[in-house]
Amino acid sequence: MNTARERDDAHGSGRPAGRVGELQRRLAEFAAARHWEPYHTPKNLATALSVEAAELVEIFQWLTPEQSARVMDDPATAARVADEVADVLAYLLQFCEVLGIDVLEALAAKIERNERRFPITESGEPAGRGVGETDGSEGAHERANRHSSE
After folding, report:
1. Which of 32, 76, 79, 128 is most exposed, with minimal Cβ within 10 Å?
2. Phi, psi of 8 (to 5 degrees)
3. pTM to 2 decimal places
4. Low-confidence residues of the chain: pLDDT under 70
């Protein structure tokens, strides 16, 4: 597997400019210094990302909606949430680094697609069906996953 620097020199990293790009560079250098790059395959990074996301979910697993809204009020729990968010973001940035995806560009493109897919009418209401309503044309997966990050 090529090092991050070799990828940058050969065909760009897909790394965004600014603070996110700097953090992505630091993560790549951290992994390279420890010779972890052979393990940072897309499959392994996607798996690690999923595990870290599950650890974040675990914090909220048995909380009521009201308790979850106040989770940052407890310093110990807030620190756990922040650590898991950092782990999720770190693996996502490493995943994007390996595949040459500019994470901010990908997010901007997704937001634009969602804005076209879910337009707002002049009344300020979403066009079409309300949340949870379907006309039967969507499959179960689409119904179950309809939200702002689609």
Report:
1. 76
2. -60, -45
3. 0.74
4. 1-13, 128-150
